[in-house]
Amino acid sequence: MKTKIFIDGSEGTTGLRIHERFAGRDDVELLMISPELRKDVNERKRLINESDITFLCLPDSAAIESVSLVENDHVRIIDTSTAHRTQEGWAYGFAELSPAHRQAIQTGKRIAVPGCHATGFISLIYPLVAGKIMAPDYPVSAFSLTGYSGGGKKRIAEYEEENRSPYLDAPMEYALGQQHKHLREMKAITGLTRTPLFSPIIADYYSGMLLTVMVHTDLLSGTWTLESLHNYLTDYYKGEQFIRVMPLGAEADENNLLGSNVRSGWDGLEIFVTGNDERIQLSARFDNLGKGASGAAIQCLNIMLGCEEERGLNL
Question: Is 0.85 surpassed by the pTM of this model?
Protein backbone atom coordinates (compact mmCIF):
# COMPACT_ATOMS: atom_id res chain seq x y z
CA MET A 1 0.00 0.00 0.00
CA LYS A 2 1.30 3.43 -0.91
CA THR A 3 2.13 5.94 1.81
CA LYS A 4 -0.15 8.96 1.62
CA ILE A 5 1.83 12.22 1.64
CA PHE A 6 0.53 15.76 2.03
CA ILE A 7 2.77 18.82 1.62
CA ASP A 8 1.34 21.75 3.57
CA GLY A 9 2.97 24.78 1.98
CA SER A 10 3.73 23.14 -1.36
CA GLU A 11 4.13 26.48 -3.18
CA GLY A 12 7.16 27.64 -1.20
CA THR A 13 10.78 27.01 -2.19
CA THR A 14 11.22 23.98 0.08
CA GLY A 15 7.75 22.60 -0.65
CA LEU A 16 8.32 22.74 -4.39
CA ARG A 17 11.68 20.98 -4.07
CA ILE A 18 10.15 18.24 -1.92
CA HIS A 19 7.37 17.76 -4.47
CA GLU A 20 9.92 17.47 -7.29
CA ARG A 21 11.75 14.70 -5.46
CA PHE A 22 8.72 12.42 -5.60
CA ALA A 23 8.89 12.22 -9.39
CA GLY A 24 9.17 8.59 -10.43
CA ARG A 25 8.46 7.16 -6.96
CA ASP A 26 5.82 4.45 -6.90
CA ASP A 27 5.72 3.97 -3.13
CA VAL A 28 3.89 7.20 -2.26
CA GLU A 29 0.60 8.85 -3.11
CA LEU A 30 0.59 12.66 -3.03
CA LEU A 31 -2.56 14.26 -1.64
CA MET A 32 -3.01 17.48 -3.60
CA ILE A 33 -4.76 20.64 -2.46
CA SER A 34 -6.58 22.93 -4.86
CA PRO A 35 -4.61 26.16 -5.34
CA GLU A 36 -7.56 28.29 -4.23
CA LEU A 37 -7.80 26.31 -0.97
CA ARG A 38 -4.13 26.47 0.02
CA LYS A 39 -4.95 28.69 3.00
CA ASP A 40 -8.30 27.11 3.85
CA VAL A 41 -7.93 25.69 7.35
CA ASN A 42 -10.67 23.09 6.98
CA GLU A 43 -9.26 21.71 3.71
CA ARG A 44 -5.74 21.58 5.12
CA LYS A 45 -7.07 19.86 8.22
CA ARG A 46 -8.84 17.25 6.11
CA LEU A 47 -5.76 16.45 4.05
CA ILE A 48 -3.42 16.40 7.06
CA ASN A 49 -5.64 13.86 8.81
CA GLU A 50 -6.02 11.76 5.65
CA SER A 51 -2.27 11.53 5.23
CA ASP A 52 0.18 9.06 6.70
CA ILE A 53 2.92 11.71 6.69
CA THR A 54 2.55 15.46 6.29
CA PHE A 55 5.42 17.78 5.40
CA LEU A 56 5.15 21.30 6.82
CA CYS A 57 6.83 23.89 4.58
CA LEU A 58 5.44 26.93 6.30
CA PRO A 59 6.36 29.93 8.45
CA ASP A 60 6.70 29.05 12.14
CA SER A 61 3.28 30.25 13.25
CA ALA A 62 1.52 28.41 10.42
CA ALA A 63 3.49 25.23 11.17
CA ILE A 64 2.39 25.37 14.81
CA GLU A 65 -1.21 25.80 13.65
CA SER A 66 -0.94 22.81 11.30
CA VAL A 67 0.30 20.55 14.08
CA SER A 68 -2.73 21.59 16.15
CA LEU A 69 -5.00 20.36 13.33
CA VAL A 70 -3.90 16.73 13.77
CA GLU A 71 -6.79 14.74 15.26
CA ASN A 72 -5.45 11.18 15.32
CA ASP A 73 -2.39 9.18 16.37
CA HIS A 74 -1.77 7.94 12.86
CA VAL A 75 -0.41 11.10 11.22
CA ARG A 76 3.34 11.69 11.35
CA ILE A 77 4.75 15.17 10.81
CA ILE A 78 8.01 16.31 9.16
CA ASP A 79 8.39 20.03 9.87
CA THR A 80 10.88 22.10 7.86
CA SER A 81 10.25 25.31 9.82
CA THR A 82 12.16 26.61 12.83
CA ALA A 83 9.20 26.11 15.15
CA HIS A 84 9.92 22.71 16.70
CA ARG A 85 13.66 22.08 16.33
CA THR A 86 14.44 22.41 20.03
CA GLN A 87 11.03 21.39 21.35
CA GLU A 88 10.66 18.37 23.60
CA GLY A 89 8.96 15.43 21.93
CA TRP A 90 10.35 16.25 18.48
CA ALA A 91 13.14 14.20 16.91
CA TYR A 92 15.90 16.27 15.35
CA GLY A 93 16.25 15.17 11.74
CA PHE A 94 20.01 14.73 11.50
CA ALA A 95 20.47 10.96 11.41
CA GLU A 96 24.25 10.97 11.07
CA LEU A 97 24.85 12.53 14.48
CA SER A 98 24.33 9.27 16.38
CA PRO A 99 22.45 5.96 16.27
CA ALA A 100 19.99 7.49 18.74
CA HIS A 101 19.18 10.31 16.32
CA ARG A 102 18.53 7.86 13.48
CA GLN A 103 16.35 5.67 15.73
CA ALA A 104 14.34 8.68 16.91
CA ILE A 105 13.60 9.62 13.29
CA GLN A 106 12.68 6.06 12.38
CA THR A 107 10.16 5.63 15.19
CA GLY A 108 9.06 9.23 15.81
CA LYS A 109 5.74 10.86 15.07
CA ARG A 110 7.17 14.39 15.04
CA ILE A 111 10.38 15.18 13.13
CA ALA A 112 12.02 18.62 12.90
CA VAL A 113 14.26 19.12 9.85
CA PRO A 114 17.47 21.07 10.69
CA GLY A 115 18.06 24.58 9.43
CA CYS A 116 20.57 25.05 6.62
CA HIS A 117 23.21 27.03 8.55
CA ALA A 118 22.62 24.77 11.55
CA THR A 119 23.24 21.67 9.43
CA GLY A 120 26.78 22.77 8.57
CA PHE A 121 27.55 24.02 12.07
CA ILE A 122 26.22 20.97 13.89
CA SER A 123 27.95 18.53 11.53
CA LEU A 124 31.27 20.04 12.69
CA ILE A 125 30.67 20.83 16.36
CA TYR A 126 28.45 17.98 17.57
CA PRO A 127 31.16 15.29 17.19
CA LEU A 128 33.68 17.44 19.09
CA VAL A 129 31.40 18.13 22.05
CA ALA A 130 30.05 14.57 22.11
CA GLY A 131 33.62 13.23 22.15
CA LYS A 132 34.59 15.65 24.94
CA ILE A 133 37.20 17.20 22.65
CA MET A 134 35.57 20.62 22.82
CA ALA A 135 34.25 21.90 26.13
CA PRO A 136 30.59 23.03 26.12
CA ASP A 137 31.69 26.57 27.03
CA TYR A 138 34.21 26.85 24.18
CA PRO A 139 33.92 30.31 22.54
CA VAL A 140 32.86 29.06 19.10
CA SER A 141 32.74 31.44 16.16
CA ALA A 142 31.57 30.60 12.66
CA PHE A 143 30.66 32.20 9.35
CA SER A 144 28.76 30.91 6.35
CA LEU A 145 28.48 31.81 2.68
CA THR A 146 25.12 31.08 1.13
CA GLY A 147 23.21 31.51 -2.09
CA TYR A 148 20.20 33.82 -2.14
CA SER A 149 17.65 30.98 -2.45
CA GLY A 150 17.86 30.51 1.30
CA GLY A 151 15.96 33.78 1.71
CA GLY A 152 12.79 32.35 0.18
CA LYS A 153 10.58 33.62 -2.62
CA LYS A 154 10.84 37.30 -1.73
CA ARG A 155 14.64 37.25 -1.62
CA ILE A 156 14.87 35.20 -4.82
CA ALA A 157 12.65 37.70 -6.64
CA GLU A 158 14.76 40.57 -5.33
CA TYR A 159 17.98 39.04 -6.68
CA GLU A 160 16.47 37.97 -10.00
CA GLU A 161 14.70 41.23 -10.76
CA GLU A 162 15.88 42.72 -14.06
CA ASN A 163 16.57 46.19 -12.68
CA ARG A 164 17.71 45.14 -9.25
CA SER A 165 19.80 47.27 -6.92
CA PRO A 166 23.57 47.14 -7.61
CA TYR A 167 23.89 46.73 -3.85
CA LEU A 168 23.10 43.04 -4.41
CA ASP A 169 26.11 42.48 -6.67
CA ALA A 170 28.52 41.98 -3.76
CA PRO A 171 28.29 39.55 -0.80
CA MET A 172 26.56 40.97 2.28
CA GLU A 173 26.65 40.09 5.95
CA TYR A 174 23.29 39.94 7.68
CA ALA A 175 21.78 39.04 11.09
CA LEU A 176 24.21 41.56 12.52
CA GLY A 177 22.58 41.57 15.95
CA GLN A 178 23.72 37.99 16.68
CA GLN A 179 20.10 36.82 16.84
CA HIS A 180 19.95 34.56 13.78
CA LYS A 181 17.03 32.15 14.07
CA HIS A 182 19.27 29.06 13.72
CA LEU A 183 21.41 29.95 16.74
CA ARG A 184 19.03 28.30 19.18
CA GLU A 185 19.36 24.86 17.59
CA MET A 186 23.07 25.37 16.89
CA LYS A 187 23.58 25.76 20.63
CA ALA A 188 21.01 23.28 21.93
CA ILE A 189 21.67 20.33 19.63
CA THR A 190 25.46 20.46 20.00
CA GLY A 191 25.29 20.80 23.79
CA LEU A 192 27.12 24.13 23.87
CA THR A 193 26.46 26.29 26.93
CA ARG A 194 27.86 29.46 25.34
CA THR A 195 25.96 30.89 22.39
CA PRO A 196 28.23 30.88 19.30
CA LEU A 197 29.26 33.98 17.43
CA PHE A 198 27.81 33.54 13.96
CA SER A 199 28.14 35.64 10.81
CA PRO A 200 26.03 34.58 7.79
CA ILE A 201 26.90 36.08 4.40
CA ILE A 202 24.56 36.06 1.39
CA ALA A 203 26.04 36.21 -2.11
CA ASP A 204 24.87 36.55 -5.70
CA TYR A 205 24.36 32.90 -6.68
CA TYR A 206 21.30 30.69 -6.39
CA SER A 207 22.21 27.84 -4.05
CA GLY A 208 25.05 26.26 -2.18
CA MET A 209 26.55 26.83 1.26
CA LEU A 210 29.96 26.80 2.91
CA LEU A 211 30.03 27.09 6.71
CA THR A 212 33.35 27.37 8.54
CA VAL A 213 34.27 27.10 12.23
CA MET A 214 37.70 28.22 13.45
CA VAL A 215 39.38 26.15 16.20
CA HIS A 216 42.38 26.90 18.43
CA THR A 217 43.80 23.47 19.28
CA ASP A 218 45.29 24.67 22.58
CA LEU A 219 41.74 25.27 23.83
CA LEU A 220 40.69 21.69 23.10
CA SER A 221 40.86 18.85 25.60
CA GLY A 222 44.04 16.83 25.05
CA THR A 223 46.57 17.20 22.27
CA TRP A 224 45.13 17.58 18.79
CA THR A 225 46.74 18.22 15.42
CA LEU A 226 45.36 18.83 11.96
CA GLU A 227 45.84 15.16 11.14
CA SER A 228 44.45 13.71 14.36
CA LEU A 229 41.32 15.89 14.27
CA HIS A 230 40.79 14.93 10.64
CA ASN A 231 41.16 11.26 11.56
CA TYR A 232 38.63 11.66 14.38
CA LEU A 233 35.98 13.20 12.11
CA THR A 234 36.67 10.63 9.39
CA ASP A 235 36.08 7.83 11.88
CA TYR A 236 33.03 9.55 13.38
CA TYR A 237 31.22 9.66 10.04
CA LYS A 238 32.57 6.35 8.73
CA GLY A 239 29.92 4.52 6.73
CA GLU A 240 27.63 7.55 6.36
CA GLN A 241 26.84 8.01 2.68
CA PHE A 242 25.50 11.54 3.03
CA ILE A 243 28.57 12.93 4.78
CA ARG A 244 32.04 12.80 3.26
CA VAL A 245 35.08 13.89 5.25
CA MET A 246 37.40 14.89 2.45
CA PRO A 247 41.06 13.77 2.46
CA LEU A 248 43.59 16.12 3.98
CA GLY A 249 44.79 18.46 1.25
CA ALA A 250 41.74 17.86 -0.98
CA GLU A 251 41.41 21.63 -1.36
CA ALA A 252 44.51 21.51 -3.59
CA ASP A 253 42.30 20.02 -6.29
CA GLU A 254 40.46 23.35 -6.33
CA ASN A 255 43.62 25.51 -6.42
CA ASN A 256 43.46 25.80 -2.62
CA LEU A 257 40.09 27.50 -2.83
CA LEU A 258 36.72 26.31 -1.54
CA GLY A 259 33.79 27.43 -3.68
CA SER A 260 30.50 27.77 -1.83
CA ASN A 261 28.28 26.85 -4.80
CA VAL A 262 30.17 23.74 -5.96
CA ARG A 263 27.65 21.31 -4.43
CA SER A 264 24.49 22.99 -5.63
CA GLY A 265 22.01 20.29 -6.63
CA TRP A 266 23.70 17.59 -4.52
CA ASP A 267 22.12 16.14 -1.38
CA GLY A 268 25.20 15.23 0.62
CA LEU A 269 27.65 17.24 2.73
CA GLU A 270 31.43 17.53 2.50
CA ILE A 271 33.70 18.29 5.45
CA PHE A 272 37.13 19.87 4.94
CA VAL A 273 39.81 20.10 7.64
CA THR A 274 42.33 22.82 6.78
CA GLY A 275 44.79 25.15 8.50
CA ASN A 276 47.66 23.99 10.70
CA ASP A 277 48.29 22.24 14.00
CA GLU A 278 47.60 25.38 16.05
CA ARG A 279 44.68 26.92 14.16
CA ILE A 280 42.28 24.67 12.30
CA GLN A 281 39.41 25.51 9.98
CA LEU A 282 36.53 23.04 9.84
CA SER A 283 34.31 23.63 6.82
CA ALA A 284 31.03 22.03 5.74
CA ARG A 285 29.99 22.40 2.10
CA PHE A 286 26.55 21.41 0.84
CA ASP A 287 23.42 22.69 -0.88
CA ASN A 288 21.28 24.85 1.39
CA LEU A 289 18.26 23.51 -0.53
CA GLY A 290 19.53 19.90 -0.38
CA LYS A 291 21.04 18.51 2.82
CA GLY A 292 20.16 21.92 4.25
CA ALA A 293 16.41 21.65 3.53
CA SER A 294 14.34 19.47 1.17
CA GLY A 295 17.00 16.76 0.75
CA ALA A 296 17.19 16.32 4.52
CA ALA A 297 13.40 16.17 4.72
CA ILE A 298 13.24 13.39 2.12
CA GLN A 299 16.05 11.52 3.88
CA CYS A 300 14.00 11.65 7.09
CA LEU A 301 10.97 10.32 5.19
CA ASN A 302 13.00 7.45 3.79
CA ILE A 303 14.24 6.51 7.26
CA MET A 304 10.67 6.58 8.56
CA LEU A 305 9.53 4.33 5.70
CA GLY A 306 12.45 1.94 6.14
CA CYS A 307 13.60 2.24 2.52
CA GLU A 308 16.98 3.26 1.12
CA GLU A 309 17.94 6.60 2.68
CA GLU A 310 19.10 7.93 -0.68
CA ARG A 311 15.87 7.14 -2.54
CA GLY A 312 14.79 10.11 -4.66
CA LEU A 313 17.95 12.01 -3.75
CA ASN A 314 21.08 12.97 -5.65
CA LEU A 315 24.27 11.49 -4.25
Answer: yes
